[in-house]
């Protein structure tokens, strides 16, 4: 039987940060992970460069049934705290866009930094360790694992969520929550591409790889960034962002000309260059390939005519279609490619200060296993760092 003050299950972003935080306060800490290496999602994140935080992190960048839950931890360990840690380790980084910070070199720099910090505070990190059983005892918790039995006073569940099962994602955290009588809110894939009907896929065939700057809206929320046509459907940052707000059956509205009033623009062009055709005007903003395809699909009855021959009503129809395009996805690509999982352990069950389960003293939940999900752009890691740090300070 091996005894520790703290055992953390899951050596991902939140678990490693929690180990550093608790270890720095003199606690004996072991982190157990079933995978063959630690921080696999960190390694694959941000195209291998890890978008580790965002300059503009605010509570409004997170989705949760309880929008207030994330505030306390985010204010106690901010993006500036994590940036200081990165700078202490002399890891070169840069802002790519919109406050998103990436490593200049590779995501492994972040994993190495976390492991170095764990080692400095004496936290022991083990891989290849699967947990068979978790039991409550009068001394804390008893774990039965592939590396023997462990006893601890505090147990932290940092096993993440369901996205990318091939990377070791499991529903383990939800099972433990249910074992201890905690409510788990329904989960679904977030930050995930949309799939389309066979008809739409056929319509957009050949556009794979084409992108457009667009304002995408659904359920009262909008994001302005690129959309990307793929051979499976629609992706790109603004689609990934809106997917977290999309429910099956919803249509998303796409404005392909977010900077202008397209009707007024068409009217001006009609005056100034009356012989111009509609695809030419669209191609002044969109790529020629996209402009030609959309003209073919949506405006075939107008495509042979110069603008001079189009009525105001026709111009209005064109503008509305391009600026309020209603698209109904058939679904999403699901957990296979989703960056995050929405839903999870109900935050009402957990203290926002200590991350301890109210019904199970000594048991804590941090990171993505909780019902807190960030927007795209480094916010999910900031949540993992902040919740891990806050919990570690209270163990
Ligand atoms: C492709 C991709 C790219 C991403 N890019 C970014 C990005 O650039 N910026 C950003 O902010 N966020 C990004 N994310 C989201 C981010 O990776 C997660 O939100 C974050 O890793 C969650 O941290 P966590 O510690 O809660 O969980 P994880 O990092 O997933 O860690 C959970 C750990 O628990 C272990 N585990 C799971 N089940 C068990 C079990 N039964 N027994 C033992 N161990 C277990 C896993 O092996 C894993 O090591 C990305 C996600 C994906 C999938």
Automatic annotation (TrEMBL):
<dbReference type="Pfam" id="PF22780">
    <property type="entry name" value="HI0933_like_1st"/>
</dbReference>
<protein>
    <submittedName>
        <fullName>NAD(P)/FAD-dependent oxidoreductase</fullName>
    </submittedName>
</protein>
<keyword id="KW-0274">FAD</keyword>
<dbReference type="InterPro" id="IPR057661">
    <property type="entry name" value="RsdA/BaiN/AoA(So)_Rossmann"/>
</dbReference>
<dbReference type="InterPro" id="IPR055178">
    <property type="entry name" value="RsdA/BaiN/AoA(So)-like_dom"/>
</dbReference>
<dbReference type="InterPro" id="IPR036188">
    <property type="entry name" value="FAD/NAD-bd_sf"/>
</dbReference>
<dbReference type="Pfam" id="PF03486">
    <property type="entry name" value="HI0933_like"/>
</dbReference>
<dbReference type="InterPro" id="IPR004792">
    <property type="entry name" value="BaiN-like"/>
</dbReference>
<dbReference type="InterPro" id="IPR023166">
    <property type="entry name" value="BaiN-like_dom_sf"/>
</dbReference>
<feature type="domain" description="RsdA/BaiN/AoA(So)-like Rossmann fold-like">
    <location>
        <begin position="5"/>
        <end position="393"/>
    </location>
</feature>
<feature type="domain" description="RsdA/BaiN/AoA(So)-like insert">
    <location>
        <begin position="188"/>
        <end position="340"/>
    </location>
</feature>
<keyword id="KW-0285">Flavoprotein</keyword>
